[in-house]
Specification:
The chain is mainly alpha-helical. The protein is built from nine helices and no strands.
């Protein structure tokens, strides 16, 4: 009895600790990409304009225009790309559904061969394939996972991707322009705030990846700083030439 209780306890502990994060929800990539892109692009845009020695009002208008244009562009691009990918997947699922309906025996044999190739005993593989093929929707799900590498019940949402991208880009792009909106007339507070935001975003992203927080933060900091430095130099160069 004690042995059974111990095994049950170990099973429960394993089940509680053996969980995985959502990797196909369709929100993480556009959210991360949007925030980073908003920070880097608007920081680079503002430093480039500031390098050209323009006035405070021009910097603010440039920052707000960059925020709005970038957020809508990111949202539209994410929606279109995810919707197109989803439509392609649905079309392939329709192809697989027709094959299961027209050639059920061939599809069952194909599934059995796949399991056999993975080391399952041939007789057992045929029996497993037979049982799984009795339910057409389950068979479709299994074939989609094995042949296409997708889960029909967990396709990314274009709307989720677009909203995540829009919100994260707008938030990221707001940081560099925020000091100017509050009345600051010099560039360095905006740069410091944006670089701190880049480091923070990198550190947060590290929580859902295998990287350490400081490595991920420093990587984003370096990339954003390099972009800002290059555009500031270009702004100064062209501003002097045009002046």
């Amino acid at each position: 009895m004690a042995i059974i209780d111990t095994e049950a306890t170990l099973h429960e502990a394993h089940r509680d600790n053996h969980t995985h994060r959502d990797v196909n929800g369709g929100w993480l990539r556009p959210a991360v990409f949007g925030a980073m892109d908003g920070l880097v692009s608007n920081l680079a845009l503002l430093t480039g304009v500031a390098g050209g020695s323009v006035g405070h009002q021009a910097i603010v208008l440039t920052g707000l225009a960059g925020l709005a244009a970038g957020a809508f562009s990111m949202a539209a691009g994410e929606y279109t790309s995810v919707a197109s990918q989803r439509e392609l997947v649905l079309a392939e699922l329709d192809v697989e559904r027709r094959e299961l309906r027209k050639h059920p025996q061939a599809e069952e044999e194909e599934l059995a061969a796949l399991y056999t190739a993975r080391g399952v005993e041939p007789g057992l593989a045929r029996e497993v394939a037979r049982q799984l093929s009795q339910d057409p929707e389950r068979a479709l799900e299994i074939h989609a996972r094995e042949e296409l590498g997708i889960d029909p019940a967990d396709l990314p949402s274009p709307l989720v991707a677009a909203v995540s991208s829009f919100g994260s880009f707008a938030l990221g792009a707001l940081l560099p322009v925020l000091p100017f909106l509050l009345g600051v007339t010099v560039l360095w507070p905006a740069v410091l705030l944006a670089l701190a935001g880049l480091f923070g975003c990198g550190a947060v992203v590290a929580r859902v990846t295998a990287r350490t927080w400081w490595f991920s933060g420093l990587r984003q900091l370096a990339l954003g700083g390099a972009a800002a430095g290059v555009t500031y130099a270009l702004g100064s160069l062209f501003g002097t030439a045009l002046g």
